Amino acid sequence: VQLQASGGGLVQAGGSLRLSCAASGRISSLGTMGWYRQAPGKQRVLVAIISSSGSTNYEDSVKARFTIFRDNAKNTVTLQMNSLKPEDTAVYYCNANGLEDTVWGRRVFASWGQGTLVTVSS
């Protein structure tokens, strides 16, 4: 299963960006989908996740500013980012797990997107 992320870019502090991620391949079912970020010199950390039933969880610093939602019919997950701050600058990665169909039967997958850069200027 492949994940294709899009939507990063340069924005001024206080602005908004929307990141999208589409899953493709022989998907049997999608489980949890989410967004992670990695700032320069730091480890990759969770930003927001959403379960297959729509339950969400956010990292404390983005609560009330970011919203994650998904479209199960289109196999997409989106991160709406508002009130962006310079400390939100990072490469953002989407992640998904679930079941995929293979010639050997159904198996669990966990995939990462390629990363999209978000830069917030002060």
How would you briefly describe this protein structure?
With 122 residues, this protein is mainly beta.
Q: What does this 3D model show about the protein?
A:
The chain is mainly β and 122 residues long. Helix content is 0%, strand content 63%. It is built from no helices and eleven strands. Strands 2, 4, 5, 6, 9, 10 and 11 form a seven-stranded mixed β-sheet that branches. A four-stranded antiparallel β-sheet has the order 1-3-8-7, with no helix packed on it. It starts with a strand and ends with a strand. The mean pLDDT is 97.
Topology:
Blueprint: E1 2-6, E2 9-12, E3 17-24, E4 27-38, E5 45-50, E6 56-58, E7 66-71, E8 76-81, E9 90-102, E10 105-112, E11 116-121
Radius of gyration: 15 Å
Q: What is the mean pLDDT?
A: 97
Number of strands: 11
Strand fraction equals over 45%
| Termini gap | 37 Å
Helix content: under 10%
Total helices: the number is 0
Low-confidence stretches: none
- Strand-and-helix sequence, N→C? EEEEEEEEEEE
How would you describe the shape?
Answer: elongated
Structural class, judged by helices and strands? mainly beta
What about the largest sheet? 7 strands, mixed
Question: Which keywords apply here?
Answer:
single chain, 122 residues, mainly beta, seven-stranded mixed sheet, four-stranded antiparallel sheet, 0% helix
